[in-house]
């Protein structure tokens, strides 16, 4: 059983198109069905709100740490926090983990070929043509998580299978 | 009864020292005791995270609207959101209300004399000596809410009395 006042942070990390927002939204819906609201910090949405749109390495790292600080704040207030964020740098993910109390790194290890085929926002096309720079997987690195709590390939697993695995992870930890 | 999946935004507005953070924290604790987590967006904390520290009129308005956009996002996700923020401009509070779905404006109408006596952060002293500028109530305006859902004078009411009044307001709306 999920107790009412447990709080933790779930980081969904992976390439653009890996399914982070889809899985995050599905998780949030399932948690609501279990009677728990959660806070979803989506990298793109927070960028839009705070109007910081630089994508160089330093700006991305700062963006990721800002989101981790928000997550830490809301976690300490008793919330379940879901972060959907490319979070391409291993050292930053490690710092994010340290900022939080109960932190789960969930790596959406969908191949770049699948992500490029999906290309939901047309961004890979623009990155490959050079129209946009610093694009993860094309012109900027994605450092693969070495010890994530969970890896999910959304090319193989259904959305329900993914959310079940995440929720099993969290429930098990609190049994 | 408070149902599990209802979401709304409570804005605690008032002068520095009026008791916004104190009441917000107490509210959050009481909601947790009722089995509901909530998201507290404290103006100072969010400024610290996003590192935007200008206090001129335009910067303050932008800051307040950013917080309202976050509140709206988290409310739409099914959360109870508490905002503790001076929010001195009536037109901005009105815009904040429009951004949210269920919005409650709670005015902490504690007198400036009481706030100056409390001066928990020593800011009135600095504002009166001219060490800091654009300080609400001293060198910047606070436009009194004309039709708040609730007014609370924290010089007269205890913390418990204040939180009871806020929770009655919310419970009543959902009975």
Describe what this molecule looks like in 3D.
Two copies of one chain form a homodimer. The first copy, chain A, has 175 residues and is of the alpha/beta class. Chain A contains seven helices and five strands. Chain A has helices at residues 20-33, 43-50, 57-76, 90-99, 112-118, 123-128, 159-174; strands at 8-13, 39-42, 80-84, 103-108, 150-152. The termini of chain A are close together. Chain A binds chain B through residues 4-5, 7, 28, 32, 35-40, 45-46, 49-50, 52, 66, 69-70, 73-74, 77-80, and chain B through 4-5, 7, 28, 32, 35-40, 45-46, 49-50, 52, 66, 69-70, 73-74, 77-80.
How would you summarize the topology of this molecule?
The structure is a homodimer of 175-residue chains.
Chain A: E1 8-13, H1 20-33, E2 39-42, H2 43-50, H3 57-76, E3 80-84, H4 90-99, E4 103-108, H5 112-118, H6 123-128, E5 150-152, H7 159-174
Parallel strand pairs in A: 1-3, 1-4, 2-3, 4-5
Helix pairs in contact in A: 1-7, 3-4
Q: Supply the number of helical segments of chain A.
A: 7
Q: Structural class, judged by helices and strands of chain A?
A: alpha/beta
Q: Give the domain tally of chain A.
A: 1
CATH class identity of chain A: Alpha Beta
Q: How is the main sheet of chain A built?
A: 5 strands, parallel
**Distance N to C terminus of chain A:** 7 Å
In CATH terms, the superfamily of chain A is P-loop containing nucleotide triphosphate hydrolases
Biggest sheet, spatial arrangement of strands of chain A? 2-3-1-4-5
**Reported CATH architecture of chain A:** 3-Layer(aba) Sandwich
Q: What's the oligomerization state?
A: homodimer
Which fold name fills CATH's third level, the topology of chain A? Answer: Rossmann fold
SSE ordering of chain A? EHEHHEHEHHEH
Low-confidence stretches of chain A: none
Shape of chain A: globular
Tell me which protein chains meet in the greatest interface and how many residues each side has. Answer: A-B, 25 and 25 residues
Mean pLDDT across all residues of chain A, rounded? 93
Strand content of chain A: 5-15%
